[in-house]
Each structure stands twice: as structure tokens, then as C-alpha cells.
């Protein structure tokens, strides 16, 4: 493996990682990388063979005790030669001592189990145009999330994520092309959703949080109104049966599967109100 070196990812590398993930069918959002970089500027690694990118991975640190691995990709023409495992080891070393999560595609899950990860739930990707009458839940107002104090949005997000991620969230809800909507009842946040464009596929919704299925449906339909043809993609955790029932009931079809996996006990999250994960890449 002469000439193989692992370095931090620059702006051009981040775009390359996005394009590699797109080629794998993961459909990252067009501008996701800007929020990703804000989450942990040093958390993205590229393995270079004789100066050319050969493999990549992200190992993002959140707070003092959590980390998330994503973007684990080796260039197709170089697979099976040991370059991927080198960037993997660099990622796990960077997150040593933390609880680590990832969203693993089906054909890699046994490899992740061999590295100490255990499945917590399955994420099923649903795609389609949400059906139904489109009425908002009674007593709920759907508002631009930017109209609410960011501290309230961040506090709501903490119910669904193990550590604060304010730098990431502040961009995720405000990047050009991203549309963030909150469901409010009597001044309380009862739901939050974001939709963003994906160049090679339908716009992706994530996260989608809601206090009830009715609120989730109202947010989902409202966000789908920002998709060019109404078609959206949503990664639904099967640990919330109401979320699975909602996606199927709205006429969305399952198209892709991953498993949320952790190196230890799964963190305590408000899974009964989690209708769509934020992203496969950063959790």
C-alpha cells in the first residue's frame, strides 16, 4: 500500500464524498456538506493513493460522549485491497471512548457486527407522493421554523439526538434549498421537519419529529408541497410503528433499508415521536 495516506477532507473532498455517496444510492442532499462540516470540521477523512482519493469516511464527534460514522466508501476500482479498512480504523480511533452510531446498509451489517456494533432498529426508506386530503391537525399551526427562537428548536431536537448539535442544526434548518417547518400548538413546538433537494433523486425529508401521527402527516404534506412534483423520500425508523403505518397509509413505497447500529446500549431517545431520521450520514 505504498503511497497511501489518510488526511482531513477539504471542500473539494467533501463534494467528492457527496458524489460517491450519491453513486452508492444514498442520495445525500445537494448542500448537506455545509451543515456536515459545521458539525465537526475535523470529522471527515480521505485516504489518498499516490495523491488521488481512494477511500473516505466520516467520524463526527458530538458533545463529550457520542460519535457517528458515515460516508464509509472505497472507490469501486480499489475495493478489496485494504484501503477501506485503513480509513475505518482511523475513524474508530478518532471516536475511541465514545458511544458510536452508524446507519449500515444491509450488505455491510455483518462487518459492522464484527467491529462491535449491534442493531437497534431498521430504517426503511419510503418514496412517493403523500396522498390524503392534506388537512392540518386540529389546533396546529405550521410555521417557518426560522420564526421561532433557535434555542427552542435546539431543545426540541435534543429529545431525538444523544448530544447537542446546535452548529449543525442551525445550518440544517437554514441552508439555501432547505425548507424547515415547525408545528406549533398554543405556543408549544409539537413537530419539526426539514426538506432539502437531492440532485439525483426526489427531495429528502429529515428529520421529521411529531407529537402525534396527525401532526406528522400535516408536516409531511406541507413539506412535500416544496418538492417540484410532490414526490419525497423519508427514512422511517421501524422502532416507531406509527411512523411505518403513516408512511404506508400515505401511499409511500419502501425502496431501501439500513440498520441503526451502536457500539453499546442504544441512547434513550423519544423514538415514539421520531417519524424520520435526519440523515444516514450523520445520524
Overview of the structural elements:
By secondary structure, the protein is of the alpha+beta class. Strands 1, 2, 3, 4, 5, 6, 7, 8, 9, 10, 11, 12 and 13 form a 13-stranded mixed sheet that branches. Helices cover 27% and strands 35% of the residues. The protein is globular. It has helices spanning 11-23, 32-39, 83-94, 109-114, 150-157, 166-172, 213-224, 241-249, and strands at residues 4-8, 44-49, 52-62, 66-74, 99-105, 118-128, 141-144, 179-185, 188-198, 201-210, 232-237, 253-262, 274-276.
**Class based on secondary structure composition and strand pairing:** alpha+beta
How would a textbook summarize the main sheet?
13 strands, mixed
Put simply, the count of helices is 8
Order of helices and strands: EHHEEEHEHEEHHEEEHEHEE
Identify low-pLDDT runs: none
Question: Strand share of the residues?
Answer: 35-45%
The gyration radius over C-alpha positions equals 18 Å
Average pLDDT:
94
Shape descriptor: globular
Question: Level of helix content?
Answer: 25-40%
**What is the CA–CA distance across the termini?**
32 Å
Q: What is the β-strand count?
A: 13
Characteristics of this structure?
13 strands, 27% helix, 35% strand, alpha+beta, single chain, 13-stranded mixed beta sheet, 283 residues
